[in-house]
Write a structure and sequence with these properties.
- The structure is a single chain.
- By secondary structure, the chain is α/β, with parallel strands linked by helices.
- The chain folds into 4 domains: 274 residues, TIM Barrel, CATH 3.20.20; 27 residues, no CATH class; 57 residues; 115 residues, Double Stranded RNA Binding Domain (2-Layer Sandwich).
- It is built from 17 helices and 14 strands.
- α9 links the parallel β7 and β8.
- The longest helix has 22 residues.
- Bound molecules: 3-methyl-2-oxobutanoic acid (KIV) and zinc ion.
- The site of 3-methyl-2-oxobutanoic acid (KIV) has 10 residues, from β5 and β6.
- Keywords: Acyltransferase, Amino-acid biosynthesis, Branched-chain amino acid biosynthesis, Cytoplasm, Leucine biosynthesis, Manganese, Metal-binding, Transferase.
Length: 519
């Protein structure tokens, strides 16, 4: 048994499935490139049958991949598996991942009895194996599946040619001792278990995904399925950065290796937070803003004497630059480029030019521009192709409402102006956008965070909107909270409009959730 643990990243499939975390084609391709570069072994790039968009993204990622295996998800149907193969086959190292829900609750959905399901598993894995020599089979909701049936299905999948057997804790139900025991028992009791890799895939409903994944490795699993920032449905999936750093820091008791370059963690974490619109909680392990911050006197004193007093790993190990001096309005383009590079953002000349203009504008308003300010600046995901652009905004607020917003909005290249009132400045601003660009999108989330300390701090605003089941998230930062709110709202609308076009009748099929068990 090898001591190498394969890292299977499913940010672009299970992570992206999280309501609101939808990413654009280009964003998916970019994240896949970052994952490949950081040394992830397998990238689950999407669910090719779910939509034309998913199919195209998986194909493109497969074509561009350098080292990582590229995997696509398919339900237990020949049609799904064929579509998956069409997308992943462009990779030098393709993998088909097929699954079915094996627990009593999941068996009831396609209404299959145990024998019928066993036959379906045999047929699907055989079919996949005829297309590709790298086939992963998953028993969805394995941790709530009767032991005898789980063992039987795993045995069938192996005999039919599966090369990886994934044992998902789909609803985050297991705990570490049970997680280790389940894998250990399968390896001990299933025929030919030593010819395949066992994999663990944990959800975080009870906050134990990382512990359960590591326990599964102790039980014999040699693949961990995870996502950047733990992105995923409900409470999310196992966080890649947590399992990778735990294996690195506690090698003394977990003698396993991964290929991940941990210094790339922070950068990809920030990028995934931006494109998914899911900000990382401040006290999140490894990648949270406070993960390496030492506020209290006792802690600071201890840290100054010896860092190891309160730190089990160095910030540099996860790609966090040591404290550096803030930039100001006299800082030039070269200084900005150097600072961005330290923060993990390598930019072409045009992109840098654009960021430099925004940086100068910010530096005029804010004496010191800190690393977090720059990160917020770079994160603003506007595009030249945006249909809506905020040209001007003046808001009157105060104790005597209603508050009023005067706005100029460019719509498809033409300026339109209006005044609107509302219950507070943000409400007035959003009403102004609505009166200029009528839409039925519903505001699902409006969140404001201060980027740094001080009253001149920038506010980052995240806005999530929903229209006919399509969800889009927008973000923006500004020293003026209302301006940041307007820009984030408009940004979300722009992204929703792109999505609306992509899912026009005849262009895309409706989204398929993976709980659907196939034909
Ligand atoms: O959680 C789960 O069971 C899954 C499967 C599709 C592998 O994501
Ligand atoms: Zn899952």
């Amino acid at each position: 048994m090898t001591d190498h643990v394969l890292i299977f990243d499913t940010t672009l499939r299970d992570g992206e499935q999280s309501p609101g975390a939808t990413m654009t084609h280009d964003e998916k391709v970019e994240i896949a490139e970052m994952l490949d570069e950081m040394g992830v072994d397998i990238i689950e790039a999407g669910f090719p049958i779910a939509s034309e968009g998913d199919f195209n993204a998986v194909s493109e990622i497969a074509k561009r991949s350098k080292t990582a295996q590229i995997c696509g998800l398919s339900r237990a149907s020949f049609k799904d598996i064929d579509r998956c193969w069409e997308a992943v086959k462009h990779s030098q190292r393709p993998r088909i991942h097929t699954f079915i829900g094996t627990s009593p609750l999941h068996r009831a959905i396609p209404n299959l009895d145990m024998d019928e399901m066993a036959e379906r598993i045999h047929d699907c894995v055989t079919h996949a194996r005829n297309l590709c020599d790298n086939v992963q089979w998953s028993s969805m909701d394995a941790t709530r599946t009767e032991w005898d049936f789980l063992k039987r299905t795993v045995d069938i999948a192996i005999k039919a040619g599966a090369t990886t057997i994934n044992i998902p804790d789909t609803v985050g139900y297991t705990e570490p001792v049970e997680s280790a025991g389940l894998i250990r028992r399968l390896i001990a009791e299933v025929d030919s278990a030593d010819t395949v890799i066992f994999s663990t895939h944990c959800h975080n409903d009870l906050g134990m995904a990382t512990a359960n994944s590591l326990a599964a490795v102790q039980g014999g699993a040699r693949q961990i399925e995870c996502t950047i920032n733990g992105l995923g449905e409900r409470a999310g999936n196992t966080a890649l950065e947590e399992v990778v750093m735990a294996l690195k820091v506690r090698k003394d008791i977990m003698p396993f290796e991964t290929k991940v370059n941990t210094r790339k963690i922070m950068n990809i974490s920030r990028r995934v937070a931006t494109v998914s619109g899911f900000p990382v909680q401040f006290n999140k392990a490894i990648v949270g803003k406070n993960a390496f911050a030492h506020e209290s006197g006792i802690h600071q004193d201890g840290m100054l004497k010896n860092r190891e007093t309160f730190e089990v790993m160095r910030p540099e190990d996860v790609g966090l630059a040591g404290t550096t001096l803030p930039l100001g309005k006299h800082s030039g383009r070269a200084a900005l480029r150097a600072k961005l590079s330290v923060l993990g953002f390598e930019m072409g000349d045009n992109e840098l030019k654009d960021v430099f203009v925004r940086f100068k504008d910010l530096a005029d308003r804010k004496k010191e521009v800190f690393d977090d300010d720059l990160i917020a600046l770079v994160r603003q995901n506007n595009s030249e192709d945006d249909r809506l652009k905020l040209k001007d905004l003046t808001v009157i607020c105060g104790m005597n409402g209603p508050q009023k917003a005067d706005m100029v909005l460019e719509i498809d290249g033409k300026d339109h102006a209006t005044s609107a009132t509302g219950d507070g400045p943000v409400d007035a601003t959003f009403n102004a956008v609505k009166s200029l660009f009528a839409h039925d999108a519903r505001l699902q989330l409006y969140q404001v965070h201060a980027v740094t300390e001080g009253t001149d701090a920038q506010a980052t605003v995240s806005v999530r909107m929903e229209e006919d089941g399509r969800i889009a998230t927008g973000q923006s930062a500004d020293t003026d909270t209302v301006v940041a709110s307007a820009k984030a709202y408009i940004n979300a609308l722009n992204r929703l409009l792109v999505r609306r076009e992509k899912t026009a009748p005849g262009v895309d099929t409706p989204e398929i959730r993976y709980t659907d068990a196939g034909e």
